[in-house]
């Protein structure tokens, strides 16, 4: 994942998060899903939002696939992301982010 902060100053956030996804088989073109994951991040956002360069991230999401072909689906989803240092250093305010997205998913 990658993200940027633009105010009050420019900064970056990069991370790697493996996700576990569960698809609900409905027997139709519609397939809802949920997923969760935990990973590591590096950032230069700094205080007061984040207090260390090394951060953990937790993610959870839910979405819906609509299959237009057997291996291609239109996808909408919402994801919650929490970034913090897990109390390695103080203050550990952390950052919570909600992301809504849409796209095309291709299955190999």
Shape annotation: elongated
CATH class reads Mainly Beta
Distance between the termini: 22 Å
What is the level-2 CATH architecture name? Beta Barrel
For the CA atoms, what is the radius of gyration? 17 Å
Largest sheet: 7 strands, antiparallel
Number of strands: 7
Oligomer: single chain
Classification by helices and strands: mainly beta
- What does the average pLDDT come to? 92
Compressed to H and E, one letter per element, the order equals EEEEEEE
Question: Percent of residues in helical segments?
Answer: under 10%
Enumerate the spans where pLDDT stays under 50 for 5 or more consecutive residues. none
Number of helices: 0
CATH fold-level label: Porin
Tally of domains: 1
How much strand? over 45%
Index terms:
108 residues, mainly beta, Porin, elongated
Polypeptide structure, described:
With 108 residues, this protein is mainly β. It has one domain: Porin (Beta Barrel). It is 0% helix and 65% strand. Strands 1, 2, 3, 4, 5, 6 and 7 form a seven-stranded antiparallel beta sheet that branches. It is elongated, with a radius of gyration of 17 Å. The mean pLDDT is 92.
């Amino acid at each position: 994942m990658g993200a940027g902060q633009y105010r009050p100053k420019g900064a970056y956030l990069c991370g790697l998060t493996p996700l576990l996804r569960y698809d609900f088989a409905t027997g139709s073109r519609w397939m809802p899903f949920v997923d969760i994951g935990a990973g590591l991040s590096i950032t230069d956002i700094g205080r007061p939002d984040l207090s260390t360069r090394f951060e953990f991230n937790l993610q959870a999401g839910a979405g819906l696939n609509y299959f237009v072909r057997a291996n291609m689906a239109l996808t909408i989803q919402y994801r919650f992301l929490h970034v913090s240092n897990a109390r390695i250093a103080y203050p550990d305010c952390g950052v919570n982010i909600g992301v809504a997205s849409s796209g095309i998913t291709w299955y190999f």
